[in-house]
Structure of Transcription elongation factor Spt5:
Amino acid sequence: MQEARNYYVLKVTSGQELNVALMMEERIKANNISEVYAILIPPELKGYVVVEASGAHVVRLITAGIRYFRGLAHGLLTREEVLSFVSKRTVQIGLKPGDVVEIASGPFRGFQAQVARVEEAKGEVVLNILESAYPLQVTVPADNVKQIKR
């Protein structure tokens, strides 16, 4: 008979996801708990940790008294939702060196820049800021720019 595996979402203090995961791992090892199968820290979701376990009672056991643990979120995640966090995404970048873009977010928001290099494997573009008094090259995620002209 196959054991039930559920995905529980834990609310934690933002920025403390790794600390909470490490504390849970230590507690699992120290108490020899075999009903926890995985601990996932989704990079897209700040302040949340996903635990794959056999039941909510096991999650409560490993999180009891952990300093940055804020509570268990209502509901469960499906396997497909968890796989979307861990699957590798390919980013289609339609930019080429020489294109003029506007930076949409970050500290250089609103600045115009020229694409110097496209790093498709990382999903980033290297830009030369046009509105700078001196040559300034920055690397930003490709989804943080919008193309103005080719």
